[in-house]
């Protein structure tokens, strides 16, 4: 523990040194959009192949497996309660005035594959892995950040008082795929991946599920 604290202390002193020795460098970093966006991306967006807490490396191709688990895994009442309690507190990036537990599509009796894959993952984690509610929430948020990165980057920039357009992005609402009528657009084009049993990763059908 003393070794770790020592390293942390050295890191702080190095930061202080650079702050006083190279103030212009810090000013450059603060105003450089590429630097700011790269820093945000490193903090917020997990990369493909990243190791996860449940042992399955992140991949967009996991979306089909996770979505299948939504129907395949039967939860006990206790497990269902754990999942619902945590997912209801996670805004759906496709329509963030709704939760990932019940996105806007559910009002018409549908479910988009962005939220279906998230709920399927949650079911797998509680039923097969015995994860706690907090562990499930963390894993689902990681999955959503991976699938819908531009929404989270734009949102973070707006929370900092910055204009996403200065960073080559659109405002966060532009990435809310359900409200942009992209429910059936492929995931890798910013859509929800469809509403059917087959998750769309690279198709071009863009019919809205919210009309």
Q: H/E element string?
A: HHHHHHHH
Task: Give the averaged pLDDT, no decimals.
Answer: 86
Intertermini distance: 57 Å
Q: How many helix segments?
A: 8
In brief, what are we looking at here?
The protein has 211 residues and is mainly alpha-helical.
List keywords for this structure.
8 helices, globular, disordered N terminus, disordered C terminus, mainly alpha, 211 residues
Structure description:
- 49% of the residues lie in helices and 0% in strands.
- It has 211 residues and is an all-alpha fold.
- It has one domain (32-189).
- The radius of gyration is 20 Å and the shape is globular.
- Mean pLDDT is 86; it is low at 1-21, 23-28 and 204-211.
Map the helices and strands:
Blueprint: H1 2-21, H2 23-31, H3 33-44, H4 62-72, H5 77-87, H6 113-127, H7 133-147, H8 149-159
């Amino acid at each position: 523990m003393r070794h770790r604290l020592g390293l942390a202390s050295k890191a702080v002193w190095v930061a202080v040194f650079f702050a006083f020795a190279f103030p212009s460098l810090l000013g450059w970093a603060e105003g450089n959009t590429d630097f700011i966006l790269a820093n945000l991306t490193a903090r917020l967006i997990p990369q493909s192949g990243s190791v996860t807490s449940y042992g399955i490396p992140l991949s967009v191709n996991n979306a089909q497996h996770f979505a299948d688990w939504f129907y395949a895994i039967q939860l006990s009442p206790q497990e269902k309660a754990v999942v619902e309690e945590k997912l209801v507190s996670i805004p759906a990036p496709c329509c963030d005035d709704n939760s990932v537990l019940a996105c806007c599509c559910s009002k018409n009796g549908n479910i988009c594959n962005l939220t279906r894959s998230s709920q399927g993952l949650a079911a797998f984690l509680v039923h097969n892995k015995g994860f706690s509610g907090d562990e499930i929430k963390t894993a689902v948020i990681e999955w959503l950040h991976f699938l819908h990165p531009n929404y989270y980057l734009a949102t973070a920039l707006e929370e900092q008082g910055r204009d996403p357009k200065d960073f080559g992005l659109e405002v966060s609402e532009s990435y809310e795929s359900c409200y942009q009528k992209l429910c059936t657009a492929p995931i890798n084009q910013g859509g929800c991946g469809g509403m059917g049993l087959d998750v769309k990763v690279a198709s071009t059908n863009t019919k809205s599920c919210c009309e």
